[in-house]
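Sequence dictates fold. Next comes a concrete instance:
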Amino acid sequence: MKGVVLAGGLGKRLLPLTKITNKHLLPVYDRPMIYYPISKLVEAGIHDIMIVTGGYHAGEFLRLLGNGKQFGLNGLRYAYQEGEDGIAAALAMAKEFVGKSRMCVILGDNIFSDSIQQQVSEFEDIDLSAYLFLKRVEDAQRFGVAELDENRRLIGIEEKPQRPKSSYAVTGIYLYDSTVFDTIATLKPSRRGEYEITDVSNYYVEQGRIDYHILEGWWTDAGTFESLHHAQILTRNERLKTITEAGKR
């Protein structure tokens, strides 16, 4: 299993903070944002990771992370995405790195409390091509939204709908087999001019080769000032809780 962290983009919604650095290098409580997805991959038993980044500050990732030794990684690779062509286009940059392996993909601004180790382990052995992580939210219109039928089967995903068909947001945590690269190659740009990861997921819905898990703990992205502030609070509370519990042992 390979790990891919997508950390590109210009972070325009966080200007002027992102004028001098990449969004994913901003602090979230006591760590750079990029530490969180890397740590979750390592926690899930994944030690071969690629960072896909872009923009004007890509070199800062190498200065901060080096070869990944501080995380106990077997290796840390880097890929550079020119332009902003969407999440699916960014993932395509990892094709050579992933090869025929299966992969766990995390958007670099996704911060969450659950362990995904069990799902990662099970995905190695099940006959599926894709697996999504959902989270119930109050502002589903901000995200890709999962549509479930009466039997709780995933029957479609809508990207940022004005009237969401459920309250389950598709988080930026994905499991794929290597066929995802062939799927991406068939995509056409959306109205936004991007290659959408939602189109990838809907392809696997049509093929019946996708499943999902609903996160039980807290989850947030950190792509806006409000969500970044929320991430600060959540991670601080989590850290203090861990320290308090350790002190009681």
User: Anything to note?
Assistant: The two ends are 35 Å apart (CA to CA). The mean pLDDT is 92.
